[in-house]
Specification:
By secondary structure, this protein is α/β, with parallel strands linked by helices. The protein has two domains: about 10-180, 3-Layer(aba) Sandwich (Rossmann fold); about 190-285 and about 295-395, Rossmann fold, CATH 3.40.50.10300. The chain is built from 13 helices and 20 strands. It has helices spanning about 20-30, 50-55, 75-80, 95-100, 105-115, 125-130, 135-145, 170-180, 215-225, 255-265, 310-315, 330-340, 380-395; strands at about 10-15, 35-40, 60, 85-90, 120-125, 150, 155, 160-165, 190-195, 200, 205-210, 230-235, 245-250, 270-275, 280, 300-305, 320-325, 345-350, 360-365, 370-380. An eight-stranded mixed β-sheet has the order 13-12-9-14-17-18-19-20, sandwiched between helices. A six-stranded parallel β-sheet has the order 3-2-1-4-5-6, with helices on both faces. Strand 2, helix 2 (about 50-55) and strand 3 form a beta-alpha-beta unit. Helix 1 (about 20-30) packs parallel to helix 2 (about 50-55), helix 1 crosses helix 8 (about 170-180) and helix 9 (about 215-225) packs across helix 13. It is elongated and about 80 Å long.
Length: about 400
């Protein structure tokens, strides 16, 4: 069971093709242990049936403001009072407009109007509807009122057009719901994270790189976001979707990553260097593909890449720096040496054969008080424990 187990959520579904994703979202929430209640607009029932949502949620589904199953005929009050979060997915342009204008003419809009809990909207509409000035005014007004927006995303739409307005995938919305319930240990902090490998070109088609998947760095970015931080993620070439709500900067080489960090670090409070940056690059990459010939060996002239973490830590007023070390042997010895050499307050270390490319990991943290084994677990869970440790160290400072 995840960190949302036992939480009480109301899922609202309005009319739109993306309503099919609400079924998957309901499945994810129930599987995670959420007490899920579902309410739908009449238009929403045209896209996914109440029978389907009842089967997935395990509870009756509500669509009528005058539902006789509510003893006092006040469904808009009774259905929301014990909820901790209302999530509308999809949230149509029409429904967003109603909420912004304070209109409450059906069950779902009255539920939102009379709520005492937080409200999260996952917009879903055509790109031109999203760009419409009226829609943007409505979104801005709701943001000012404290409403949380999950998306939308940029991509292909059911109408055949492409652009902003596509509803986030169920997993992405679920991820944001988990983040909503996470303790705000880094609220207001600005966190800069590097993740993934770098690629150092040999010629236009060949590179020097490593097997880092970026999974740990992305997990740390997600955990920091969930803890309330404003997160910027500088990512090397990986096949991962960036966490929603995180600013992502894509780079390829170590020098590109260094430049991105130099640009972003003045505005950060915490720097977490998770990326497996190549130590060396080819001094003079070939401008054309190197042809296979009769030579038995190829000699490459290498030069050192910049040490990004050391540069950040050596700044006059450095952010709180966290390093990562992947070792093949003597983990504690090498990790403590690296922490001392870099002059950083915290270093997370693991054995390289246990982590690269895997979904789980085994991490030990090293600080001035010694070693703190986090044990083995999913990278997402270890990232949350790392963030907790960082927050505790910052509270002591």
């Amino acid at each position: 069971m995840t960190g949302v187990g036992g939480r009480r959520v109301l899922l609202g579904i309005t009319g739109g093709v993306a309503a099919y994703k609400a079924a998957d979202l309901a499945r994810l929430l129930v599987k995670s242990g959420v007490d899920l209640r579902v309410a739908m607009t009449e238009a929403g029932t045209r896209f996914v049936t109440p029978v389907t949502m009842q089967a997935l949620s395990g509870q009756p589904v509500y669509t009528d403001l005058w539902d006789p199953r509510i003893p006092d005929n006040m469904a808009h009050i009774e259905l929301s009072r014990d909820r901790e979060l209302i999530v509308i997915a999809p949230a149509s342009a029409d429904f967003i407009g109603k909420l912004a204008g304070g209109l409450a003419g059906d069950l779902l809009s009255t539920l939102c109007s009379a709520r005492r809990c937080a409200l999260m909207l996952a917009p879903a509409m055509n790109v031109e509807m999203w760009r419409n000035p009226a829609t943007q005014r409505n979104v801005a007004a709701l943001r000012d009122d404290g409403v949380i927006f999950a998306g939308p995303a940029d991509g292909d739409q059911a109408c055949g057009e492409t652009g902003m307005g596509r509803m986030l995938e169920a997993g992405e919305i679920f991820d944001l719901i988990q983040g909503f319930f996470a303790p705000r240990l880094l609220q207001g902090r600005r966190v800069l994270i590097t993740a993934g490998p770098t690629e150092e070109p040999i010629d236009p088609v060949r590179v020097i790189t490593n097997s880092s998947s970026g999974k740990m760095g992305f997990a740390v970015a997600r955990a920091a976001r969930d803890a309330g931080a404003r997160v910027t993620l500088v990512a090397g070439p990986v096949s991962l979707d960036g966490p929603a709500g995180v600013i992502r900067i894509n780079v390829r080489t170590a020098e590109e990553m260094f430049a991105a960090v130099q640009n972003a670090v003045p505005d950060c409070d915490i720097f977490i260097s998770v990326a497996a940056v190549a130590d060396y690059r080819v001094k003079r990459p070939a401008t054309q593909k190197i042809k296979k010939g009769n030579q038995r060996a190829l000699t490459l002239d290498l030069e050192e890449n910049p040490d990004i973490l050391a540069w950040v830590a050596a700044r006059p007023r450095p952010p709180f720096c966290v390093g990562f070390a992947a070792e093949s042997e003597n983990l504690a010895e090498h990790a403590m040496e690296k922490r001392a050499k870099k002059r950083i307050p915290l270093l997370a270390a693991n054995l390289v054969h246990e982590a690269l490319g895997a979904d789980d990991n085994s991490i030990t943290l090293f600080d001035d008080r010694g070693a703190h084994p986090l044990g083995r677990g999913a990278k997402g869970e270890l990232a949350r424990r790392l963030v907790e440790h960082i927050a505790a160290m910052l509270d002591v400072k």
